[in-house]
Amino acid sequence: MFFKPKKKELLYRDNICVNCKSDDKENVIRRVGQMLVDSGYVDQPYVEAMLERESSFSTFMGNGLALPHGVESAKKDIKASGIAVMVFPEGIDWSGNEVHIVIGIAGVGEEHLQILSTIAEKVLDEEALAELKSGDVETVYRILSGK
User: Fold this and answer.
1) Which residues are identified as catalytic?
2) Which residue ranges make up each domain of the chain?
3) Which pTM does this prediction carry?
4) CA 30 to CA 46: how far, in whole Å?
């Protein structure tokens, strides 16, 4: 009998880092990208593809949110859809914009569009956004996973 491998969750508590200390944008992208690598969502080259995307197109989304993700050619480096979250209560500079929440995204096929719209929906809610900024790992997990 064959067992189908269990589908990875989109977000694990281990991929949520709250109360992060200020850092520059490139280091933050590398760190959130490495979280995706370490949890098996992507292969290492995807992190460079996230930096490449950022250099050609800012992933700042407004409302203190940045959603770094890889360029289209890096799709081959994605093994499973997933996200990693870093919360900066003091904010960080993202090309002249203040960012408090960084969510690294890897989406298989067209799943990244679904992930983006789900995240956008959650952070348009001012209350949820405030909770994400000041919350602990459980709070962030509950809001973003819907569990």
Assistant:
1) 69
2) 13-145
3) 0.93
4) 10
**DSSP string for residues in 53-110:** HHHHS--EEETTEE--B--GGGGGGBSS-EEEEEEEEEEEEETTEEEEEEEEEE-STT
Q: How far is CA 110 from CA 70, 73, 114, 116, in A?
A: 13, 14, 7, 10
How many angstroms separate the CA atoms of 26 and 20, rounded?
15
Torsion angles phi and psi, residue 63, rounded to 5: 55, 25
Q: Does domain 13-145 have CATH number 3.40.930.10?
A: yes
pLDDT tens profile 80-121: 999 999 999 999 999 999 999 999 999 998 888 888 888 888
Q: Which residues in the chain land under pLDDT 50? A: none
Report which residue type is found at 133. K
Q: Token digits for 17? A: 């880092």
